[in-house]
């Protein structure tokens, strides 16, 4: 068996990660994933904007979390899940920041702690929690990583619910549905790793 190196190894990792997280090509004998039929528009409301302004920093803190697993001793399936989350969330951030720019809106709403009071509060993972995870020793890291990421992805589900219930922009609502479904599946997968 030939050893994969460089780009081919990365491509194999991403394909495997996408398969594990329910993204990408369908497994043999199953239906392919649906092609998006969302018609893109620039119509949006305050909920669409708030969803994106909450999700962009949330995704970026999620990227900080999953990148901590790259150089740590964790099970292969945990490392693969973290890599898949990174690829997905980078792509989602690109889409969200583009939409906000197209709408003439800033990437973040501001620093007022009361700003998200009407949306169930601030759903972000604190920098202190991420720093604490980064300082966790090897023996405890995987469990601490999974617990923090489960909580983080639960908050993503809560943010997505807001958009699903009150947004009007079709592409933002479609993204919210994909976030809701994928993060719910990831939570279940990670609970299985802990259990």
TrEMBL record:
Coiled-coil zones: none
PANTHER family per record: SLL0788 PROTEIN
Source organism: Saccharothrix hoggarensis
Keywords attached to this entry: Signal
Presence of the UniProt keyword Disulfide bond in the record: no
Membrane-spanning intervals of the chain: none
Lineage: Bacteria, Bacillati, Actinomycetota, Actinomycetes, Pseudonocardiales
Protein origin, superkingdom: Bacteria
Segments forming domain DUF305: 48-191
UniProt protein name: DUF305 domain-containing protein
UniProt keyword Ribonucleoprotein present: no
Gene3D superfamilies (alphabetical): 1.20.1260.10
Signal peptide: 1-26
